[in-house]
Amino acid sequence: MGFGKKSKDTTKDNKKPRSGFDDDYFKRKPTKQAALIRGGLSSSSILETPKAAAPPKSRSTQSPQKPKTFEDSPVLDPAPSARKRWERKMVIRQIQRRGRLSKRLQLKRTERESLSKSQMLKTSVKKLGPLARQIAGKSVEDAIVQMRFSKKKAAKEVKDHLIYARDDAIVRRGMALGDPEGTKGEEIEIELKNGKRRLVKDRTGLYIDQAWVGRGSFGSEPLHRARGQINILKPPTTSISILLKEEATRVRISEEIKEKRRKRKLWVHLPNRPITAQRQYYSW
User: Fold this and answer.
1) How far apart are CA 225 and CA 4, in angstroms?
2) Does residue 208 or residue 276 have the better pLDDT?
3) What is the pLDDT of residues 106-140, one digit of tens each?
4) Coil, strand or helix: which one is 199?
5) Beta bridge mates, 139
6) What region does 211 belong to: left with phi over 0, alpha with psi -120 to 50, or beta?
7) Do 147 and 161 form a contact (C-beta atoms < 8 A)?
8) Which residues have C-beta within 8 Å of that of residue 69, sequence separation ≥ 6?
9) Helix (H, G, I), strand (E, B), or coil: what is residue 92?
10) pLDDT at 248 over 80
11) Are 214 and 150 in contact (CB under 8 A)?
């Protein structure tokens, strides 16, 4: 045995005998660790990079989507049987009337209107009712001026709702567009229902046909009193609804009033009626 060479360790070759417990341990111990499965980002994730994003599909490879109909979509047609019954009912009604429309439907097709309801205002019906009666029958611009200089506390909220109702009628219903579209019409003097006369310069102008209020739910506020007592207040809430129409409606109503007055028969104090059922003797 030299000094520069290392002797081989013979203890490694001699394996120790295993017991029954060692065999069970090596059977349960996994021989190889399972590899980790790494996830990725979805195509709609905001954290993805341009490199990780999938290439967009060309339009030629995409299959054309069939447009959804009432029969295909349960959201658009939740009750198909009820819809078919209603359509059948409308067809039968149209055949019975021979295609003739009622006066209400004719006015709905020829004249425009816009109904706007405000949110619940922290006031009572008794305080908001006079303001609704004050603006009813006036044009929208005149009503806004009235609410602007009113001393009532709720007048400011009513003015804001009038501005919103005017803008909503212009955008959604296409009302008050006579100046840009050139459909203002000629100036005409009309007669209102109350007998007053008014000069109409724009037949597409907006006016307040009806204005009413509605009672809402009551709130709950604490009122701190002396000696640690607390009273509960119940402040009321009220909403205001405004129905806007165009001046063409008032022109039509004025013409109907004149036509009704023209067809009215002349009143006679003692009309000349033929005498009938005359007998020689009394009837009793």
Assistant:
1) 105
2) 208
3) 999 999 999 999 999 999 999 999 999 999 999 99
4) strand
5) 207
6) beta
7) no
8) 76
9) helix
10) yes
11) no
Residue 174, φ and ψ in degrees, nearest 5: 70, 30
Both structure tokens of 13? 């070759």
| Helices 155-173 & 125-135 angle (0-180, nearest 10) | 50
pLDDT digits (tens, 9 = 90+) for 4-19: 555 555 555 555 555 5
* Region class of 93: left (phi > 0), else alpha (psi between -120 and 50), else beta: alpha
Amino acid letter, 213: V
Neighbours of 131 (CB within 10 A): 23
The DSSP 8-state label assigned to residue 102 in this structure reads P
Rg, Å, the chain Cα set: 42
Please compute the mean of the pLDDT values over residues 208-214 and round it to a whole number. 98
Residue 272: per-residue pLDDT? 81
Reduce the secondary structure of 211-267 to three states and give it as a string.
EEEEECCCCCEEEECHHHCEEEECCCCEEEEEEEEEHHHHHHHHHHHHHHHHHCCCC
281 with 218: CB under 8 angstroms?
A: no
